[in-house]
Design brief:
- Helices cover about 40% and strands about 25% of the residues.
- The strands form two sheets. A five-stranded mixed beta sheet has the order 5-4-3-7-6. A two-stranded parallel sheet has the order 1-2.
- The chain folds into two domains: about 70 residues, Transcription elongation factor, GreA/GreB, N-terminal domain (Helix Hairpins, Orthogonal Bundle); about 80 residues, Transcription elongation factor, GreA/GreB, C-terminal domain (Chitinase A, domain 3, Roll), CATH 3.10.50.
- A hairpin with a 2-residue loop joins strand 6 and strand 7.
- It is an alpha/beta fold and about 150 residues long.
- The chain is built from three helices and seven strands.
C-alpha cells in the first residue's frame, strides 16, 4: 500500500483515462492500417505499431496497479509538527547558506521541477520525523550535506 495526495491520485487517474480513451484507439487504428498494407514479416509500420501498442498496454497496466494499491491521504489528519509525507520543508544548507524548499511526496508524484521529492530519496529519509530548528545530515553521492530546517507546513 502506498499513500499519495489527492492531487497526485487525480493526475494519475486522468493520465490513465487519456491513455485508454484517446491513445489506445489511435494505436489500434494505426495497427489496423499497417496490417492492411500486406506482408507483415517485412512491414515496418506494423512492427512499430505493435511495439507502441505493447508499451501503451504496459503503461495502462502499471497505472491501474498504482491506483489499485494507493490510498489518498487526508491532509487534515497530518501533523505539521514533524516532517512526513506531504510536508513542505524549507531548509538552509549550512555549507553554502542556500535555502531550499521541498515537498515530500510519493514516488509516483516526484517532480524535481516542482521541488517535489520522493519519500524514498536520501534527503526525505533524513528529514522524516524532524522538527523546525533540527539539524539534518544527508549522505548523498557527492558526500554529506548539512541542513537546518527553517519552516514546515503542508
Amino acid at each position: 500500500m502506498e499513500y499519495m495526495s489527492k492531487e497526485g491520485y487525480d493526475k494519475i487517474q486522468a493520465e490513465l483515462q487519456q491513455l485508454i480513451s484517446v491513445e489506445y484507439p489511435k494505436v489500434k487504428e494505426a495497427l489496423i492500417e499497417a496490417r492492411d498494407k500486406g506482408d507483415l514479416s517485412e512491414n515496418f509500420e506494423y512492427h512499430a505499431a505493435k511495439r507502441a501498442q505493447s508499451r501503451l498496454i504496459g503503461r495502462i497496466s502499471f497505472l491501474q496497479k498504482v491506483l489499485r494499491f494507493t490510498q489518498v491521504i487526508e491532509t487534515d489528519r497530518l501533523s505539521t509538527d514533524t516532517v512526513g509525507l506531504l510536508s513542505c520543508v524549507e531548509m538552509t544548507n549550512l555549507d553554502t547558506d542556500a535555502v531550499k524548499t521541498f515537498t515530500i511526496v510519493s514516488p509516483h508524484e516526484m517532480n524535481l521541477q516542482e521541488n517535489k521529492i520522493s519519500i524514498k530519496s536520501p534527503i526525505a529519509q533524513a528529514l522524516l520525523g524532524k522538527k523546525v530548528g533540527d539539524l539534518v545530515e544527508v549522505r548523498v553521492p557527492a558526500g554529506t550535506q548539512r541542513y537546518r530546517i527553517i519552516s514546515l507546513h503542508l
